[in-house]
């Protein structure tokens, strides 16, 4: 993931954090989730969409890197293909 935390500028205060899926080997099992501070409740939709776009971009970049190493191919470019 490109972004896994959102912090208040100039502080260490976490406003949002993405938690990856845990298979339960070393700690309790859980699906992936986004933990968002209540101080962002007025813009929760924006935070969620931003994290989704960042994850989609991250997945696309990983696929490109993997494809470039195996076949030399390149994927499509531009923000329109993220979602």
Describe the structure.
With 83 residues, the protein is α+β, with helices and mostly antiparallel strands. Helices cover 33% and strands 16% of the residues. A three-stranded antiparallel β-sheet has the order 1-2-3, with helices on one face. Strand 1 (5-7) and strand 2 form a beta hairpin. The chain is extended, with a radius of gyration of 16 Å. The model is unreliable at 72-79 (pLDDT under 50).
The proportion of residues in beta strands is 15-25%
The major pleated sheet works out as: 3 strands, antiparallel
Helix content: 25-40%
The structural class is: alpha+beta
Radius of gyration: 16 Å
The shape, in one word, is extended
Can you list the strand order of the major beta sheet?
Answer: 1-2-3
N/C terminus separation: 15 Å
List how many beta strands DSSP finds.
3
- List SSEs in N-to-C order: EEEH
Low-confidence stretches: 72-79
Q: pLDDT average, as an integer?
A: 80
How many helices does DSSP assign? 1
Chain oligomer state: single chain
Give the SSE layout.
Elements: E1 5-7, E2 14-19, E3 33-36, H1 44-70
Antiparallel strand pairs: 1-2, 2-3
Could you name the key traits of this structure?
16% strand, 33% helix, 3-stranded antiparallel β-sheet, 1 helix, 83 residues, extended, alpha+beta
In short:
With 83 residues, the chain is an alpha+beta fold.
């Amino acid at each position: 993931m490109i972004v896994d935390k959102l912090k208040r500028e100039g502080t260490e205060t976490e406003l949002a954090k993405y938690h990856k899926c845990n298979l339960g080997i070393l700690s309790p099992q859980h699906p992936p989730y986004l933990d968002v501070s209540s101080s962002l409740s007025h813009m929760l939709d924006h935070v969620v969409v931003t994290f989704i776009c960042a994850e989609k971009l991250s997945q696309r970049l990983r696929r490109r890197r993997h494809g470039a190493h195996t076949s030399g191919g390149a994927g499509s470019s531009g923000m329109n293909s993220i979602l």
